[in-house]
What does this fold into?
Amino acid sequence: MFSGIPNNGSRSSKSLISFGFLPFLGNRMEEAVSAEPILNKDETLTRQSSFMGLKCWQWWLLVAVNIFFLLAGQAAAVLLGRFYYDKGGNSKWMATFVQTAAFPILFIPLFLISSSKEPSTTTPPSCIILASIYIALGVVLAGDNMLYSTGLLYLTASTYSLICATQLAFNAVFSFYINSQKFTALILNSVVILSLSAALVAINDDSEGSSGISKGKYAIGFICTLAASALYSLLLSLMQLSFEKVIKKETFSVVLEMQIYTSIVATCASLVGLFASGEWKTLHGEMNGFGKGRISYVMTLVWTAVAWQVCSVGVVGLIFLVSSLFSNVISTLSLAVVPIASVMVFHDEMNGVKVIAMLLAFWGFASYIYQNYLDDRKAIKAQTGADDNHSNDSSCF
It folds into this structure.
């Protein structure tokens, strides 16, 4: 899965269904504001002005390109992961490895923005402290990716993506205890509805179907995916805490560095697991017996790794262009993209229970987003001092 980037300094819950994972940073808001706005006008204007006077249509084109990267990369990565298992792949550690193995791709945007370093007013933490944070979070990320790989092995892509939607509920809970997020009626409604959605998927008889997965393995897949969603949400909150209390710096390059260094650690940990488990001995036979041939086996793994990092580039790009919450909102659209795509590609069954679970998930998501919309309005009023003062702004919104 992806490494996620928390909304640094915000009081809202973080990314929903992200597989491949970047910490989400946002500008610090006043304590009275309970969540980061979806489109913070001051934040957006500042970021637009940093793009050397781009016209609105050019700015929107960049936003559209990054949205495409996020949605296409995320959907492709999940579908390719399911394809790997369907055609004879069986190594959970290899599936874990490819989720972060293409991290060198992120050096491209890092080098492109390295010349525009922003001055820091805070004393940077020591290298030992930073290394300890990256190692700890990287190991957690590797374990989380392993749980996701196990879940995808035993579940259809549509069922898997629906369970991953519970990340929003877990994010709200962990953010309440770790990051002092305020619980409102709408957020509580979102948590309850998403929990009901997951419960429907749990009791749905999706085993012994076309995939031939037993009920026992289906239960393992469900538990692993649910646990992975909870662990990933905890990871996001811990990342936010690290940015707030230790790193104390919120720039595009710092976000990329967090993603790159934690991915390096996670990749190394996955390699250790691959060799320690003995799965590396079966890879040659796995490649020879792959349903579409040896070349297809290699290309499936390569493009799965690339797809995760394309998604990561899209996530970071939207954070930089718009806001962290907007990036999370777009990421959540995969909740619809992946199940629908899996029906078309793998002919997954979308029975009535799954449809109801998906609708409940959208309901829970809409409740959460509406709460952030209300907080957005409150933040704009607090910053402008009047309801209509920003009507003449030169923003592209």
Summary: Residues 5-113+124-388 form one domain. The radius of gyration is 21 Å. The longest strand covers residues 5-8. The chain is about 65% helix and 0% strand.
